[in-house]
Specification:
Residues 12-31 have a biased composition (Low complexity). The chain is of the alpha+beta class and 127 residues long. It contains 4 helices and 3 strands.
């Protein structure tokens, strides 16, 4: 019987064969843009002839937490220009604030039946 040691010679060491593998290449992730952020939205209060400055100031304090001085400036601007941006926020919050303005109720100091409604607001994309 012939042993592998006899065929190769007594001095040749026997080493196991290493599998041939391609060198490892680093994985390259495709460049993807990060998800785009939604632009902010303006909540815009619209003027009418029925609500007093006090009503507007109080509403802005209650809904938005605006200080009285800022509420006064916004009431003056909506009276002069017909509209004023009262907040700039993400879309869902803008929609909620619009609903809160329109659901705030009539001005208790207004006696005219036409004035027994809430103020109106709209939202617009800031971009």
């Amino acid at each position: 019987m012939i042993y592998s040691a006899d065929i190769r010679g007594a001095t040749a060491p026997v080493t196991p064969r290493q599998p041939r593998v391609a060198p490892q290449q680093p994985r390259v992730q495709p460049l993807a843009a990060p998800p785009a952020l939604e632009p902010p939205w303006h909540v815009i209060l619209l003027d009418d002839d029925w609500h007093t400055f006090e009503y507007v100031i109080e509403m802005l304090q209650v809904i938005f937490g605006h200080p009285r001085q800022l509420g006064r400036r916004m009431a003056e601007e909506v009276d002069q220009r017909g509209r004023v941006i009262v907040a700039t926020v993400h879309k869902e919050l803008a929609e909620l604030r619009q609903q809160q303005i329109e659901g705030y109720g009539p001005d208790p100091k207004e006696t005219n039946p036409q004035g027994q409604v809430s103020m109106k607001a709209l939202i617009e994309c800031s971009e």
